[in-house]
Every structure is written in C-alpha cells, then in structure tokens.
Design goal:
five-stranded mixed β-sheet, about 20% strand
C-alpha cells in the first residue's frame, strides 16, 4: 500500500501566489499520483471537507459534467480530502448510481493530513480534520498562480474556476491583464506604462492608465 508523502522542505506556513506547489505522492481513485506528474499542463488542485456530504456532492457532479471544458483548456483536475481511498470509491459509486455521473478525475486520500497541512487546507481553528474548500491553480511549471478558499458551507462555482483559469492563460499568452468581471471573448487591458518616455508620449490621453483592446487583437 502506497503511503501519502509530501515534500515539506521549505514550505511556508501559508502558501502565497507565486510559490512552488509542494510536491506529494499519494493514493488516489485512479492509482498512485505524484503532483509532479502534471508538469507541462495546468492543474487545479482542490480540497473538499468530506465524502458523502451534500455540498461536496453537488461540486463533484458539476465538475465532472464540465470536465471537457477543463480539458479544452489543457487543465487537469485533482481532488483531495482526509477520507480514505475506500470512502472515495464508495462515494464515486453512489454518485454514479444516484446522478448518472462518473467522476472523471482522481481523488486523493489524505488521512494523515500531510497534504492538507502542507497546503494550509486545514484551519488551525477547525474543530475537526475536515479541509476547507481550497482551490489552487497551478501552472505548467508547478507554480501556484491563484488561490480561492470557501468555508465548508458554501459550494464553489465551476464557472468561476473556468473563468480564472482562462484569465490566467490569456494573461500569459498575450501579456495583458483582465478587468473586473472578465470572461473569455471580452476586451482585455494593456499593462500600465513602465517607463517615463512611454508615459509622456501618452500624456494627451486622459485615460493613459486604462487602455483596452479586443481579446483577439495581438500586440
């Protein structure tokens, strides 16, 4: 039986955007997984408080139904909770039988809490070992690019996960930034001027600090 292990060396108490995602090896519903196996593509690693709970079930049904949308963005999904592998397997079967949905991504077992503690998924003030609804957007180089955290009582939005993922990818590809409420296909913003000459050349434009362009336009 493979044991869960995580590379805790140098891991800060609170992970920040821009930190390398701590590597780990663990059993999942689809075999033993190393986080480093996902290098070269995007990965969304997310925790859920417990199997066989209503909010978590609603999330897993929605994520499985949207798996092709994540795949289209070359992004893998990887779930984790403190429940055992056998609990995960029983829950997957119940979801299939009850909703007609096959969970399409691995679920990691973390009964020793090694992964949860390495990622800060478990609050120090939590009355039990249930993880928060933490979501980590990890780029192809293994760097954490965004994080979202919800309490156990509030379900995540699959559309928001896809929106953030698409925004991160367009920012990298086109060297732009995205405005409030951006969705794929919307106009994007150009980064602010970084030097005096460019800034002064745009002095006649009252909105020199706010330059938009269509997403499809390059440059």
């Amino acid at each position: 039986m493979a044991e869960t292990s995580a590379d805790m060396g140098g891991t800060p108490q609170c992970l920040q955007i821009g930190d390398p995602a701590p590597n780990f090896q663990a059993r999942t519903t689809m075999g033993v997984v190393n986080l480093s196996d996902f290098r070269g593509r995007w990965l969304i690693l997310f925790s859920h408080p417990a199997d066989f709970t209503p909010v978590c079930t609603s999330e897993f049904v929605a994520l499985s139904k949207a798996s092709d949308r994540f795949e289209a963005l070359d992004c893998a999904l990887l779930a984790v909770s403190v429940d055992s592998l056998y609990s995960h397997l029983g829950w997957i079967r119940a979801i299939r039988d009850g909703f007609g949905v096959t969970v399409s991504f691995p679920i990691v077992e973390d009964p020793s809490l090694i992964i949860g503690r390495a990622y800060g998924m478990i609050s120090d003030r939590s009355p039990d070992a249930a993880t928060m609804r933490s979501t980590y957007f990890i780029d192809p180089d293994g760097i954490i690019r965004a994080m979202i955290c919800y309490p156990a009582t509030i379900g995540r939005s699959v559309d928001e996960m896809l929106r953030v993922l698409a925004a991160l990818q367009i920012v990298d590809a086109d060297h732009v930034v995205t405005p409030e409420g951006w969705h794929p296909g919307d106009a994007v913003l150009l980064p602010p001027h970084q030097d005096q000459a460019a800034l002064l050349a745009a002095a006649d434009d009252p909105l020199w600090f706010y330059r938009s362009k269509p997403q499809s336009q390059k440059g």
